Protein backbone atom coordinates (compact mmCIF):
# COMPACT_ATOMS: atom_id res chain seq x y z
CA UNK A 1 0.00 0.00 0.00
CA UNK A 2 0.90 3.64 -0.11
CA UNK A 3 -0.14 7.00 1.14
CA UNK A 4 -0.67 10.50 -0.17
CA UNK A 5 0.29 13.27 2.21
CA UNK A 6 -1.02 16.77 1.72
CA UNK A 7 0.31 19.80 3.58
CA UNK A 8 -0.92 21.88 5.16
CA UNK A 9 -4.22 20.36 6.32
CA UNK A 10 -5.69 23.83 6.86
CA UNK A 11 -4.67 27.03 5.14
CA UNK A 12 -5.96 30.49 5.98
CA UNK A 13 -4.96 33.24 3.61
CA UNK A 14 -5.57 36.88 2.88
CA UNK A 15 -7.18 38.26 -0.25
CA UNK A 16 -4.59 38.62 -3.02
CA UNK A 17 -2.06 36.37 -1.32
CA UNK A 18 -0.12 33.70 -3.19
CA UNK A 19 -0.62 30.34 -1.45
CA UNK A 20 1.15 27.02 -2.04
CA UNK A 21 -0.22 23.56 -1.35
CA UNK A 22 2.01 20.49 -1.35
CA UNK A 23 1.41 16.81 -2.07
CA UNK A 24 3.67 13.78 -1.67
CA UNK A 25 2.91 10.17 -2.70
CA UNK A 26 4.82 6.95 -2.05
CA UNK A 27 2.82 4.71 -4.40
CA UNK A 28 5.48 5.28 -7.08
CA UNK A 29 2.63 6.40 -9.35
CA UNK A 30 3.45 8.24 -12.55
CA UNK A 31 0.34 10.42 -12.70
CA UNK A 32 -0.74 13.01 -10.16
CA UNK A 33 -3.74 15.32 -10.04
CA UNK A 34 -5.11 18.36 -8.24
CA UNK A 35 -8.88 18.61 -7.82
CA UNK A 36 -10.95 21.30 -6.15
CA UNK A 37 -14.12 20.45 -4.21
CA UNK A 38 -16.63 23.10 -3.11
CA UNK A 39 -19.16 22.57 -0.32
CA UNK A 40 -19.55 18.78 -0.46
CA UNK A 41 -20.01 18.87 -4.24
CA UNK A 42 -18.26 17.13 -7.07
CA UNK A 43 -14.60 17.47 -7.93
CA UNK A 44 -13.17 19.72 -10.65
CA UNK A 45 -9.77 19.06 -12.19
CA UNK A 46 -7.28 21.92 -11.87
CA UNK A 47 -4.01 20.40 -13.11
CA UNK A 48 -2.57 16.97 -13.73
CA UNK A 49 0.88 15.62 -14.51
CA UNK A 50 1.67 12.36 -16.28
CA UNK A 51 5.34 12.32 -15.34
CA UNK A 52 8.04 14.37 -13.66
CA UNK A 53 8.24 17.92 -15.12
CA UNK A 54 5.03 17.44 -17.11
CA UNK A 55 2.02 19.70 -16.55
CA UNK A 56 -1.42 19.54 -18.14
CA UNK A 57 -4.26 22.01 -17.55
CA UNK A 58 -7.63 20.83 -16.37
CA UNK A 59 -10.99 22.58 -16.64
CA UNK A 60 -10.26 24.92 -13.72
CA UNK A 61 -6.62 25.93 -14.24
CA UNK A 62 -7.14 29.72 -14.41
CA UNK A 63 -5.82 31.32 -11.23
CA UNK A 64 -3.53 28.40 -10.42
CA UNK A 65 0.02 27.24 -11.18
CA UNK A 66 1.45 23.80 -10.58
CA UNK A 67 4.87 22.21 -10.34
CA UNK A 68 6.06 18.58 -10.60
CA UNK A 69 9.79 18.63 -9.92
CA UNK A 70 9.96 15.06 -8.62
CA UNK A 71 7.95 11.95 -9.41
CA UNK A 72 6.74 11.77 -5.81
CA UNK A 73 5.64 15.37 -5.36
CA UNK A 74 3.16 17.75 -6.95
CA UNK A 75 2.53 21.27 -5.71
CA UNK A 76 -0.26 23.73 -6.47
CA UNK A 77 -0.10 27.51 -6.14
CA UNK A 78 -3.13 29.76 -5.83
CA UNK A 79 -1.75 32.81 -7.61
CA UNK A 80 -4.09 35.36 -5.96
CA UNK A 81 -6.50 34.20 -3.29
CA UNK A 82 -10.08 35.44 -3.69
CA UNK A 83 -11.89 37.00 -0.73
CA UNK A 84 -14.32 34.63 1.07
CA UNK A 85 -13.07 31.69 -0.99
CA UNK A 86 -13.58 28.37 0.77
CA UNK A 87 -12.77 25.02 -0.78
CA UNK A 88 -11.03 21.72 -0.27
CA UNK A 89 -8.11 20.90 -2.56
CA UNK A 90 -7.58 17.20 -3.14
CA UNK A 91 -4.41 15.68 -4.52
CA UNK A 92 -4.61 12.27 -6.17
CA UNK A 93 -2.35 9.82 -7.96
CA UNK A 94 -2.77 6.84 -10.25
CA UNK A 95 -0.65 4.36 -12.19
CA UNK A 96 0.02 4.71 -15.85
CA UNK A 97 -1.54 1.37 -16.81
CA UNK A 98 -4.18 2.34 -19.34
CA UNK A 99 -7.39 4.11 -18.44
CA UNK A 100 -8.62 1.52 -15.98
CA UNK A 101 -6.75 3.27 -13.24
CA UNK A 102 -8.07 3.96 -9.78
CA UNK A 103 -7.35 7.36 -8.29
CA UNK A 104 -6.06 7.43 -4.74
CA UNK A 105 -6.72 10.65 -2.86
CA UNK A 106 -4.99 12.50 -0.08
CA UNK A 107 -6.89 13.84 2.92
CA UNK A 108 -7.12 17.34 1.43
CA UNK A 109 -6.13 20.90 2.23
CA UNK A 110 -8.97 23.10 3.45
CA UNK A 111 -8.57 26.68 2.28
CA UNK A 112 -10.27 29.72 3.77
CA UNK A 113 -9.58 33.24 2.55
CA UNK A 114 -10.36 36.17 4.83
CA UNK B 1 -22.77 22.21 -18.43
CA UNK B 2 -21.98 19.24 -16.25
CA UNK B 3 -20.64 16.39 -18.40
CA UNK B 4 -21.49 13.79 -15.76
CA UNK B 5 -25.02 14.16 -14.41
CA UNK B 6 -26.09 12.41 -11.22
CA UNK B 7 -29.55 11.94 -9.76
CA UNK B 8 -31.06 12.34 -7.31
CA UNK B 9 -29.12 15.09 -5.51
CA UNK B 10 -29.96 13.53 -2.19
CA UNK B 11 -31.60 10.38 -0.96
CA UNK B 12 -32.95 9.34 2.42
CA UNK B 13 -33.14 5.61 2.95
CA UNK B 14 -34.33 3.61 5.97
CA UNK B 15 -31.86 1.18 7.47
CA UNK B 16 -32.20 -2.12 5.64
CA UNK B 17 -33.67 -0.44 2.56
CA UNK B 18 -32.45 -0.15 -1.01
CA UNK B 19 -30.70 2.96 -2.35
CA UNK B 20 -30.59 3.52 -6.12
CA UNK B 21 -28.34 6.15 -7.66
CA UNK B 22 -28.11 7.19 -11.29
CA UNK B 23 -25.40 8.67 -13.47
CA UNK B 24 -25.23 9.64 -17.14
CA UNK B 25 -22.39 11.04 -19.21
CA UNK B 26 -22.96 13.51 -22.04
CA UNK B 27 -19.45 12.85 -23.40
CA UNK B 28 -19.80 10.12 -26.00
CA UNK B 29 -16.05 9.43 -25.85
CA UNK B 30 -16.07 7.97 -22.35
CA UNK B 31 -15.35 4.31 -21.91
CA UNK B 32 -15.11 3.70 -18.18
CA UNK B 33 -17.28 4.52 -15.19
CA UNK B 34 -16.42 4.68 -11.54
CA UNK B 35 -18.26 5.15 -8.27
CA UNK B 36 -16.43 6.81 -5.41
CA UNK B 37 -17.72 7.18 -1.86
CA UNK B 38 -16.83 10.12 0.34
CA UNK B 39 -17.72 10.11 4.02
CA UNK B 40 -18.11 13.51 5.66
CA UNK B 41 -14.74 15.18 6.21
CA UNK B 42 -12.85 12.39 4.44
CA UNK B 43 -11.35 11.93 1.00
CA UNK B 44 -13.13 10.02 -1.77
CA UNK B 45 -12.37 6.30 -2.05
CA UNK B 46 -13.09 4.11 -5.04
CA UNK B 47 -16.10 1.92 -4.38
CA UNK B 48 -16.70 0.17 -7.68
CA UNK B 49 -15.74 0.45 -11.32
CA UNK B 50 -17.43 -0.90 -14.43
CA UNK B 51 -16.02 -0.96 -17.91
CA UNK B 52 -18.32 -3.20 -19.94
CA UNK B 53 -22.07 -3.56 -20.44
CA UNK B 54 -23.95 -5.43 -17.81
CA UNK B 55 -23.90 -5.81 -14.08
CA UNK B 56 -21.27 -6.22 -11.41
CA UNK B 57 -21.94 -7.15 -7.80
CA UNK B 58 -19.69 -6.80 -4.75
CA UNK B 59 -21.36 -7.61 -1.47
CA UNK B 60 -24.31 -5.28 -0.95
CA UNK B 61 -23.34 -3.09 -3.90
CA UNK B 62 -24.39 -3.62 -7.52
CA UNK B 63 -23.53 -1.45 -10.50
CA UNK B 64 -25.11 -1.55 -13.93
CA UNK B 65 -23.77 -0.05 -17.14
CA UNK B 66 -25.45 0.61 -20.46
CA UNK B 67 -22.73 1.88 -22.78
CA UNK B 68 -25.16 2.78 -25.56
CA UNK B 69 -26.90 5.30 -23.32
CA UNK B 70 -23.78 6.07 -21.26
CA UNK B 71 -25.81 5.39 -18.14
CA UNK B 72 -24.66 3.70 -14.98
CA UNK B 73 -26.49 3.04 -11.74
CA UNK B 74 -25.41 2.01 -8.27
CA UNK B 75 -27.69 0.04 -5.97
CA UNK B 76 -27.06 -0.47 -2.29
CA UNK B 77 -29.17 -3.17 -0.68
CA UNK B 78 -29.65 -3.62 3.06
CA UNK B 79 -28.45 -0.04 3.58
CA UNK B 80 -26.56 0.66 6.80
CA UNK B 81 -26.00 3.96 8.64
CA UNK B 82 -22.32 3.62 7.69
CA UNK B 83 -23.39 3.92 4.02
CA UNK B 84 -24.37 7.55 4.68
CA UNK B 85 -21.98 9.49 2.45
CA UNK B 86 -21.60 11.47 -0.76
CA UNK B 87 -21.50 9.12 -3.76
CA UNK B 88 -19.58 10.47 -6.72
CA UNK B 89 -19.89 9.07 -10.21
CA UNK B 90 -16.92 9.57 -12.54
CA UNK B 91 -16.16 8.78 -16.15
CA UNK B 92 -12.96 8.54 -18.14
CA UNK B 93 -11.95 8.25 -21.76
CA UNK B 94 -9.79 5.58 -23.30
CA UNK B 95 -6.52 7.42 -22.87
CA UNK B 96 -4.19 6.70 -20.09
CA UNK B 97 -3.96 9.80 -18.02
CA UNK B 98 -6.62 12.45 -18.47
CA UNK B 99 -8.05 11.63 -15.12
CA UNK B 100 -11.69 11.39 -14.23
CA UNK B 101 -14.59 13.76 -14.79
CA UNK B 102 -16.79 13.73 -11.71
CA UNK B 103 -20.46 14.42 -11.24
CA UNK B 104 -21.78 16.60 -8.41
CA UNK B 105 -22.68 13.58 -6.33
CA UNK B 106 -25.67 12.07 -4.58
CA UNK B 107 -25.82 12.49 -0.82
CA UNK B 108 -27.21 9.36 0.80
CA UNK B 109 -28.52 9.43 4.36
CA UNK B 110 -29.48 6.15 6.00
CA UNK B 111 -31.57 6.51 9.13
CA UNK B 112 -31.97 3.79 11.78
Summarize the structure in words.
The complex is a heterodimer of chains A (114) and B (112). Chain A is mostly beta strands and 114 residues long. Chain A is built from no helices and 11 strands. In chain A, strands 2, 4, 5, 6, 9, 10 and 11 form a 7-stranded mixed sheet that branches. In chain A, a hairpin with a 5-residue loop joins strand 4 and strand 5 (43-49). Chain A starts with a strand and ends with a strand. The mean pLDDT of chain A is 91. With 112 residues, chain B is mostly beta strands. Chain B contains no helices and 11 strands. Chain B has strands at residues 4-7, 10-14, 19-25, 30-38, 45-50, 54-58, 61-66, 71-76, 85-93, 101-102, 106-111. In chain B, strands 2, 4, 5, 9, 10 and 11 form a 6-stranded mixed sheet that branches. Chain B has a 5-stranded antiparallel sheet with strand order 1-3-8-7-6, with no helix packed on it. Chain B is globular, with a radius of gyration of 13 Å. Chain B starts with a strand and ends with a strand. The relative contact order of chain B is 0.34. The mean pLDDT of chain B is 93.
